[in-house]
């Protein structure tokens, strides 16, 4: 709801008065009266929830909202952009209503000094333009015309975004508070929240230094103090955000002409905007400093502890003078330290806490709270009122974190590089963090490291991406990133050959694992039948692949369920689901249930043993007949290790097994596999190769293809849905309706044609898909198809925006009149669609003979 629904402003904004009435109960209590907290309060009230109380430890807008660049930039990934777009529209309407928030639609110039930077900007143009954002690629002359003060001769190009804007953060903060109060929201300043009280893991009250306030919902919008406030709940809630020093400078009066666009000079780590008749210049340091690291907690009077080291920014200032030569004759500007909360991955933190019902959070604005505040306030209000997000906010969900992410030392190390990554070129799958590493490791980590593993992280877990078999005794490192064929591609190709002709060993230990059991078989079966779209009342020793859905038929989990006993199941889910799925299982468990859940992720090391010779290898090591039927398992001894669960499926769609090994046996089992496996052509394989193999087999994956807004029918997983099972399951009605009415999007496999893998830019995800020249979808995953030597992609197709028909059918997708193209950084390549994984000729006789490399690892010598 925008400000158009409000009465016109009768006076310019001003501060909300302190409440002097009883506040012993409120439907919603919000902690923090910064621009985000005020936006949430305003949107709740505008939607009819007016029984809202905002508590502020100091005065409104006295935290990091008091500072900030005031820039509003839309040239971002779609999920971020859509929320920022709402913010800009909201602020514009506030301005039109007469509120003086100093908003100007000045546009922005996004500069590229290098060829790779220009490719990164072109990729962003490609997916932003068809989804509604006006973008224009400019040469250096056109840049100079728009901003005559810029030096442009060293530029490869730039992107002009006319809808970008600037505004005054503190004025907007106060206006939103004023409007919220007009709707009936109450504010109390100079109140300290001592703790959030819970009963049966649900919020029921907030204790302050003055009183206990009963409430149904609590929303943590405490900015720099959000993490510490989360720790004051019982049970504690994790909010991994910590302030980093973030600097900008204000020049003196330079008599600038009006209406200059904002400038983002990415390759100089700087942004520049007009501020009055001078410039405001800010920097995202490549290696920033954690704020208040010598304090046990973030101080309330934080401004007294800020340091201003001009020498630290002298080099940045020189770069700014290079970009704007007139600054060389400017007096030294005023340097301002404006710390803000940064998160471990540089994305906002939104949503309901997994450990406490009705405890919500909106924080981690990563250097610009104004930019997202409007859209975030609206999204959070809808989420709370509707009981679920009304748009896909998965990239920002708080459930993407574990307790390890919330450690103070971890955060202080990680955010040092998060700040600089805002303006870095983040090459897909090739930009790993260097700080706060080696936190969660497989028991095989050290051995794999000696064998050339190059590691990446997921959920703080170290995973081998690929193996550099040429590194010798040196520890390999990731080579410089590329948008083209990656430099390590040949290693991946050898790994793939091992999986298709011999045996590949992939450490998949990071997958989340949960024991689900009850004293009574009927209880645990009934519980899972309600949650799962597939039939789970399967024989002991069987495995079922199933989704767990929400009421709208969208995925909340994609998992394998292994029935170990009549009353016991073992669940395997994607790595990033460890927090989220446990929360979903708990949320749907009644207080009287006899079902018990136990996260056993760290108890098992998981080895994916892939390839046509996997059965022979495991058979020799276990002295067992390993000709298991698909989707069954049995416990065997492997070498001297007992109770190894051997499951007859792989995560690549290829022949083989998953070995779930009690972690104390992991090194022994791995050593036996590698030593005995020499005769079978065994080789270590990384998760990047596994990823490409997964795409080639048309296997959709969580957070890329499968989300809360994607159903099994849309993702091609209808075979995992049993609408005819007698037990009701969550989402069944929505799926029955969808089956009757048809689907509005469909996941499709594409092979790209007329593209040179050695010369052209590769697709990596996010590329727009065109059908007969009309935008119809976006690539979700992309990679290389080793079996066909072609680049491949998965993506959802819809009807064109203006089409009268909305349902998507096989005939529509595969029509002979349909010509498909995928736009890769401005170049469109023809693509062939498939609704099932193509059948590839991959027999050994049709391929060159794979020659295994002898193992010379020090670990086994």
Automatic annotation (TrEMBL):
Pfam families associated with the record: DAO (PF01266), FAO_M (PF16350), GCV_T (PF01571), GCV_T_C (PF08669)
Domain FAD dependent oxidoreductase positions: 27-383
Domain Aminomethyltransferase C-terminal residue range list: 745-833
Segments forming domain FAD dependent oxidoreductase central: 386-442
GCVT N-terminal domain location: 445-725
Highest taxon of source: Eukaryota
Gene3D superfamilies given in the database record: Aminomethyltransferase beta-barrel domains, D-Amino Acid Oxidase, subunit A, domain 2, FAD/NAD(P)-binding domain, Probable tRNA modification gtpase trme, domain 1
PANTHER family per the UniProt record, alphabetical: AMINOMETHYLTRANSFERASE, PYRUVATE DEHYDROGENASE PHOSPHATASE REGULATORY SUBUNIT, MITOCHONDRIAL-LIKE
Protein name according to UniProt: Pyruvate dehydrogenase phosphatase regulatory subunit, mitochondrial-like
UniProt organism field: Nicrophorus vespilloides (Boreal carrion beetle)
Gene name of the encoded protein: LOC108558261
